Amino acid sequence: MNKLLNTLTRRAARPRHAEAQIDLSQRRAWHVETARAFDELTDIDPVLTEIFFQNYRQITPILLGPVYGVRRSSKSKETTSRVGSFGDPKPWDGQVHYDAADPDYQIEWTHQELTNGFKVQRTLIEDMQYQGIFDSASNLGQSFNRKVVKDEASVFNNAFSNSYLGYDGVALCSDSHPRSKSDATAVDNYLGTKALNEANLEEAVVQLEGLGDDRGEQTVAMATHLVVGRQLRMTALKLTGSTQEPETGNNAINTHTGIVPVIHPLITGKKWFVIDAGMSVKSLLWFWRLNAEFGVADDLGGTLVRSFYGRMRYSFGWQDFRWVVGSNPS
Fold it and tell me: What residue numbers bound the domain in which 282 lies?
């Protein structure tokens, strides 16, 4: 009897023990899934990346594309070698006439590497204190965007400065550009300090269209755009926007209606420029080596912080000056 009771007791105990094992296994699995879901919930890296790029794209660069020629680079620097122009084709006299373009300046474009970032205590992420972290990612994206917009304007802001010289040793807008490396004949694309008005705009247009190349031949430049900062916004729109002559009661036709005004808010002062955009995209260049990127790094063994950073590499500048005439009024 005792033997039978013991057997029955053991049999009755087995299901309860098995159920306990199953219940413990299910609980462990639930904890694993919950932890995994919580990790996904608190993995804010993709969210911060999206916030960074939303704000990086907040202000579209104004000059990249319409005025700058934008190119890709796969090297630490780019090198361009200027060559001279060709003369006019000659009448056929039984053989092809071959010309020789003179070698000119060599220009190097060395990409600058730009970085910025912020650090977050790990406890802030664990405790889901997200608002300040989101704001930091937003502001970081804005800072990268602002830097690109500043730099595209910097060529025009420094166009008259002797601290920012081009390949030929003078500022972008100067009355003493050498015609070529071997010909010191001066070429002038500087209008002085003349204010932006109808008469001076016409003078700049004529000056731009009269610039000669390295052989003194016409470049056939055409004034297509008027580039100004915010101080000259209204003036530029008036001079180019009306079909009739501005600032008069006459019905004379406004000859500058076809010129496109480009207002860049980060061009300082009352500088203004008449450009041939078709020529500028071949001569005013922007090389992207690395577009803006957003990265993350952990230092759990040391400072217990999570680092978020942005990074980009590019270079920019001009390889010819004959696409622009500028004036720098006080």
Answer: 131-327
